[in-house]
Amino acid sequence: MSIRERTTKLVARRHDLNYFKRLSPLRAWQWWLAGAALIAAVLWFGGSEFLHGSQALSAGPMSNSHAVFGTRCELCHVPVVEATGWTPSFGMRKRVPDSACLQCHVAPAHHPMETKETPTCGSCHTEHIGAMHLAAVADSSCTQCHAQLQSHAGVSHVAGSVSSFATNHPEFEPLRQASDSDKRAATALVFNHAEHMKAGLKGPTGPVTLECVTCHIATLNAEGRHGRSFAPVTFERSCRSCHTLQFDGHLQAEAPHGKVEDDAAFVTKSLTDFAQTHPQVVSAEIRSWPNEPLLPGQVKMPPPHTQSEWIANRIARADTILWREKCGLCHKAADGSIAYNSATMGLPVFAPVKEPQKWLSSAVFSHPAHQAVACAECHTQALTSASEHEAMMPSIRTCRRCHDGRSSPQGPAVAAGHAESGCFLCHVYHGPEQAGLTTKGLSLTQMLRQ
Amino acid sequence: MSEHAAGTHDELMTLTVDGVEVTVPHGTTVFDAARIAGITIPTLCHQQNQAPVAVCRICVVDVGERALQAACIFKGEPGMVVKTDTEPIVQSRKTLYELMLSDHPSPCLRQQQSGDCELETQAAAAGVTSTRFAKRAVPVLAADDTSPSIHVDFSACILCDRCIRGCSEIRHNYVIARQGKGYFTTIGFDDNQPMGNSSCVSCGECMVSCPTGALTNKRVLGEGRLYPEDTPNVYNVETEELLALPVFKGVSGTFLELNTGSVVKRTFRAGETIVREGDNGSTAFYILDGEADVFIGTPREHVATQQAAHGLFTKMRSMLAPKSRQPREEERATPTHIRIDAPVDLPYDNPIAQLHAGDLFGEMTCMSFYPRSATVRARTDCVMLEMLRNVLDVMQKNKTFRAQLEANYRGRALGTHLRSVPIFATVSEDFVDLLRDRVELVRYAPGQVICTEGEAADAFYLVRIGFVKVSQRRGDEDLVLAYLPRGGYFGEMGLLQGGVRTATCVALDHVEVVRILAPDFHEMLARFPEVRAHIEHTAEQRARENLLHQRSAGAHSENLPLGQFLEQGLMDAQSLLVLDLEKCTRCDQCVKACADAHDGVTRLLRDGVRFENYLVATSCRQCRDPRCMIGCPVGSIRRRNSLEVIIEDWCVGCGLCASNCPYGNITVHEFDHDGNASALQSVQTDKDSSNSGKVRKATSCDLCHDLAEPSCVYACPHDAAHRVKPNEFFAQVLGVDLDQEAAFVGKNR
Amino acid sequence: MRIDSTHKPWMIVTLAAIALGALVYVPYALRTPVPGGGTGIGLMFGSVALGLMLFAALLSLRKRFPIWRIGRTKIWMRAHLWLGFLALPMVLFHSAFHARGVLTAVLMWLTIIVVVSGIAGAWMQHTLPTKIFREVPFETIYDQIPVIRKQLAAEAAVRAVDVTQRLAPATGPGATVVDTLLDIPTMEVETTGFDKFFAEAVTPYLAQEGARKNELGNREWAREQFDNFRREFPQPAWEPISAIEEICEEKRQLDQQARLHRLLHGWLLVHLPFSAALILLAVIHAIGALSY
Question: Can you list the positions of beta strands (E) in B107-185?
Fold first, then answer.
């Protein structure tokens, strides 16, 4: 191979036997760079500690609401042992205690009979995840108790095992009522949506087609944003324009929509006043009594000969019209039957009407959050319901079509095609009302690093 | 043609030379006959004491034959008529002179110095002063000045053959011969070596025989002195003075005259260092007067790898490292004496002894150019003779000197040497005294076989000086077991068991052995039964070892017939450190580990020649023929039973083993000497001591023999370093059938 | 090192560990609202990861004391390779695949860089030794290359003089017949040309590291040049000319060796510093995270 002589000895002789004791440039660089890296790391970390507090140690960005005091670790990470300073080391744990949260937040107890130990604030509300709402708690925080709910005393009125909305959340309370009488008792008002939703109804000035929003009007709250509920449907606002309460052909006046006694008094007074102010009409009618057909339920009375007979006659007819045909259209007796029977000749007793402001006892539903959806999509019975017994409350199945549990509130993002799901969306943990404002609070210098 | 009557040498015959009748015995040459007749025939190539060769043709004469005949070789016949001066003869001679002069650098050195160049004087006498022929066009070899006493000028050589015959016939040294062909022939020494490198003993015979200035005495030229003129304390010594000494009794005065520059007298003051251990040298010293200390000044610290009790350099950091003792027994206990190149040996514990008048030291250095084995310092004012090999050679042949030498040896060293043989270790003084007189000292020339494996054992040998190679046939080849230095011994086993030799012993250089013959030996044993018991015990051990070796020899087969394998000498190795180049990342961990384990001195180098995909690292190969062992002046490099080569702690750092190792696996390093207290401290305090805090020691890979695994293999992060047996390892790698190969090679040996 | 079948046990253990880790991680991640380093399982993974990193760092120490009998370095090396690699999945499991904080983000990047550079290094150690072995038959010790270069230059200088010497017959002891038979041609032109070539091309080439525009860096060109010289000069001068050619070839190969060696060891310039910073910051992270 080689022209020049190449033996082991000749090859070996060329070398200085101490070569390996000297650091070759490559190795020197390795150690220098390693040292430099260490120093850089120390400098960086030290500098960061010095300039930005312990922010480098932060496990992640703050949530939107807490970002303002995000530089002040010590506001929440209160030392377990007092006066331990800023240097972190073993034995000086700085876990966030509940007391730190309660400096600002009021968080009433969820239930006085909570059996498990009350979870810490941090166990449900995880900070340092970034721009997300702390209130958006994961389902597991709720299901840790509600998946297998144990009760101390008696039967709880809450379902015993709820592990998620999409799987075993019970049907809504209004729909859970079984009997007609319960349903009736729920509202006690007869209304035929199907009739009213037909196109071209006879209106006061011409044909009219009703929309959902014609009667169901969202309320505004004080700040001007849409409140959470709809205003109660009132007769005066929504019904009177078509369903007038005229009780006598002679009079224009309409009976007031109020108590039965008041209406009866009004009818009597109005007819009496008319008779007194229009004696000729009365006498004319007495001479030639128009043969008006008898209304069902009307009390057959002989033709009047006197003014007071005429008044009584007219009152009887007016009562029948009102109690049976007009008021009775919607208002029924407690058992659902017609409340006024002329045979009884007394004032009808209508079942009292209840319109609950809150249809759901322990959940909150926000119509503005769903304003993209047409009313009839969820209130499916609205266009077709002929019965007064049907509650317009959508079934939980309707909700589950969008809120199918496939999107976690902890992010990172709501998966496309699914609505955000989570117990927190409807249910409130801290007390029956929202958490209020604290009486304490921080100064601005405490909050900001200034 | 006259009839030539056959006759015996006793009979006489008569012939006529230039008209003069002369009667001479039958068989006398014409030249001799003429000489007897008083007629001188000129010759150039003929010398009286040498067999005639008739190459110069100057002596041609007319004997009545068709052609002129060379008188020096042509035998006379009865009645022959010889004419020595006829015109054709004269013309022929003249032409010959002319031809020779055309090549001759006239005036040659001899002619210049002493005016007696035979060619030139004869030519001048014959009237030949110039030559018609062109001067030599082709340059001849340059002059050879390497010999200490003789200067060689090839251009003056006329190839008369006298030097060759002088060296062979007269001196029987057989150093000179012709080399080359035709016109380009010259004389050559050994295998065409420079004269100084050859086996020439500077006897001067060739020089004396040479007719021209081809071979001249350097002294005549003013050269060839041991020391320059006027060196202080160096005195020329006259031949008469030398001859007056008892040890020179019988030595040829002429020889001494010729070689005057080769021996000088030197004086030393008390305390002066004469020679230093480890230095190179070429002279021997004979003490005429005074006393000298001989000692080993190198601190006896072990370049060792075990945490031994002694030594600074022990470096197995063993904090976390459990050392496992290998089942290798030390077959040789620490010797009691260190053998050196002097009439005495130095005790191991306190290596210092005395030399006095009549002692000769430096023999091995002088004869075989080994480095000095010890430091000699004058204790009192001394007078010594310092001589070169040519003079020592002659002295050693001198009977008086030999007798003195032997007496010295018997008296002072033989006892310790005998004691060093384990079987004689515990014998009584009487035994030693008895043996002392029964031994004989025998000399062997380089290459001579002392005993052969398999022949009947008849003597026990102890090496007095020189190196003996002991080898055994293992399987199909020879394994050198040892190179025995002075004090080594061999043959006792064969002797005891009354059987055959178990190894072949060959003299490597000029060897002298102490021989104890079998009958004497056995007689001894009869009188000292405890020795016999000891011997038998050792014999058993040896027998076991031999069996083991035979078994293992049978299992392995060497000699893979691969060009490169052989070329690199890999088959000579018993253990190789190979680095798998396909795994090695060249990270130097192996080297660092080795250095860590050996006090910062690495025993391996990551460079060498490749074999297959392996780098055969430069690290001791535990050769079968450990050439490193040859010549160690203090015998500190040896082979253990497990066949590793180790260097003992009295190494003097001369570096001979390093230059002998053909692979460069041994290196000499300087170590710091921290002044470990030793008995030599007082002796060493000397301004010209070279111990300026540094000590030189030879180092080589010792296989980390105290640990379970060599450190380099252990520390390699990439599984690339391996210590392997090459025959096994590469056989597997190369897929060779070992048995087949062995048979093949065995047949074709 | 070559990653060969001896690594199999390590690979199996590592894969098993990853599988086991995944087995623990997946249910935990699904169940826990916010899986992360601070949870119990997260801490477990974190401790494992830190432990693996510290062990990996110990390799440097192991190599500083190569003769301590605390396990063969090759076993340590393999452990470093595989267990170091294992640190990455452990870190991912520990962090639940996110790194939102500043320090944690830096650590995640450092881990990735260190492990990826380590894999790159392992790959190089797997392939480059063979490359060096094949391409550099004249391989020597890297640190000694400058020394060898000087020796080559000196040798070449002697050989160059030898070229002209060979034109004259040898004299002196040991000369052979053939030597004395030679003619003495005077080759002035050729010798001058050769000397010029030697001074202008060969000497600077041998003196410098790398080829750097010297045409001798090109093997073909060099062969051509030397072939020309061999054509010009008579046979006795061929040996030194070829020797010089071989010297240039050796130098060329040593350049190649230097290049490959730097590659083979250069990746450590990334791996070492980053892992030093990683260890330091990881310890700071561990202490800080456990405190807060």
Answer: 150-152, 176-179
